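Fold it.
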Amino acid sequence: MKKVLLLMMTTLGAFQLYAQFSLTGEFRPRGELRRGYKALADDSLRKDPAILVSQRTRINVGYKSDKYKVRFSLQDVRLWGDQIPKEDVPAMAVYEAWLSYKLYDSLWLKLGRQELIFDDKVLMSNNNWNQNGQVHDALKLSYSCNKTRIELVSAYNNSSDLLFGNDYSLLDKNYKLLNMVWLGKKFGNINTNLAFINDGFQKAGTKSTVYMRFTYGGGLDIPVHTFSLHGRGFYQSGKNNTGSAVAAYYAGANITDTVTKKFRINAGIFYASGNNASDPDNKTVHAFDPLYGTNHGIHGNLDYFTSLVKNTGNAGLQNLYVKLEYACSKKTTLWLDYHWLMLQNKYVKDNVTFSKNLGSEIDLTGQYAISKEATLEIGYACMLAKHTLEVLSGGNKNCFSYWVYIMFTLKPVMK
């Protein structure tokens, strides 16, 4: 691997006379103190806070011309100390490897391992907070012209080089197939979009049966003076990866007000349907699954709800939030977020029906731009939990749950 990297960098250096080539990188260590991250703290169990440092390192090579673009990205992700110093443990992996080819005017075909990011990242995201990120082996067809954008995505997965059949051994970890159509159109200052997503999962114990799930809906963005109104709505049908029928929905609305050049307010609601646990005869799944969207920040930085289905006991989620952003200077920005979290439907355990109120989360984040290539970010979050969250996540609501992190990001660029 060292020889490959040396050859790649030497070759790129020889081509620096040509502006089409680029070499970029990312070095992102993050230190964390966890006493309530993803699960409530519990003093009675003598659980000490976790202190750890994770690190992501990437090297990205790119080339572009009028006809095509190429990107190749290597990534190393690790926890400090997870490898014995004298052991040789392979850790470098391919993060991105794709070719984008211009078929005609504004029509591009992109093939290979790539990030899929759409709209507000609720359903499709690169999950950038996670040090590993998220990529897909897919084909994407893109068209953009006259305020219209069309994206077509298709992926079909196999876990081994088969001679016959299409058995997928990773059926419990990933989809067998993925198809997506995303349409965006701007009418004056109003942005609209429609999306249709189909993901299929191989049925356990079979070699060819695929359960198909369908998610479809759209959104609207309307600017009004200093305000901006946003609305989203999606419905899910078909069958999930266990073969259960799905009838679920998600709706979101928020308003952003740029009060001054330095101060902005964003307030809204995220509403995802869930099962009614007091109605056990209903076999249809009503818990909305946000597919391959972002796993951090939407419902608070403490990440109690990275899986809406699992973390809410299938009961769905309501998230009322207010987010404040203040630019202290050209280099320093502060964010203060408040989330009031509730279940959408009834949650029952051991014949006890619990309150829908989960509690409140407060997040404070500060970011300082050291230079054009380097930033320093510090964050703090705490959870003011109710009993229902204690039942769902574990821990003790009476123990103060908090999380602190500090993250340095360097993104050097050489073109």
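The domain at 2-414 is CATH 2.40.160.100 (Porin).
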